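Request: Show me your protein:
***
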Amino acid sequence: MLGASVQREKAEELRRKLASLHLVDKRHAIVEEGDRIVIPLMSVPDTALLDGFDASLIEGAFSQRGSFVDPIDEVRASAAIPQALKPKLPGKWELFGDVGVLRLEPGLEKYESEIARAYASVLGLKAVLREVGPIQGEYRRPTMKVLLGSDTVAVHVENRVLYKLDVSDIMFSSGNQEERLRMAGLRCDSETVVDMFAGIGYFSLPLAVYQKPRRVIACEINPKAHGYLVENVQLNKVGSIVEPVLGDNRDLPGEAIADRVIMGYVKTTHEFLPTALRLVKDGGMIHYHETCPNDLLPGRPLRRVQDAARPGTVQVLRTKAIKSYAPGVSHVVLDVRVLKSS
């Protein structure tokens, strides 16, 4: 969970200020760490507010208060819907800062406004969205319906990396969290990295925040996602490392410029392999993502990379199923070393 760490003598004043902004997570207890106090948060406060108290954002474990009630029980108790429908209210939801996303069972649509108000009240949300369809199109846009609120922009915190996005218009896959965490631990000292499908910085940011690449060229074709990428580079203070590029990655100039290429895309990723192989150096790494029917694993992704690399070869260092993408279909990633001169 996210918390605000502050010197003990300033803690109560900061707590009152955060509480007035509905930013304190009252379901969890404040933590004492030596001469500092950590206040559990619902979402990210304004940087200027934290700076004014010499406070910092941290991630940590917070114990539940003794009087804690499961939020779903509170939602079901307060939702103004027929009693018979209350057991159908989702016990899981996604939170992006102070914006929530729900998936509703059939039969609840008639009461979606009442349901949104209940979740917003219990969870302290400024906006509630309903996911009504899949990610669509080249720009990877989610299919959302806004049930409550007009401001759907949030700052999502994961592994101390800040991701600002419009939740109604920009994809953020919770199922890819493990891969984002892996990027944070990927040693790439002094490397030049090309992220061909950067989005808002899903993989570029953790790599730049936690590792020491010389340069990360983060390419994104969606102008809105690119705009948030630019903001997120500044939020995470990695402007000296990450270079956001707006456009089609196939238009990136140069040959053999990258020690490492990240291909974090699905469905048609293989169509971009010629570009990745043009950009990567001999002996460089490609992190190749693909969605593939389970009965074609592990052969199809590997064959596609091998065919694209000819007359060179590839060494497969790692194959991992990230998550289920659809019934009988998995999202997988291959780490391959490219040997162009073999």
About this structure: The first strand starts at residue 2 and ends at 7. Residues 2-59 form a domain with the Alpha-Beta Plaits fold (CATH 3.30.70.2580). Residues 273 and 310 are 11 Å apart (CA to CA).
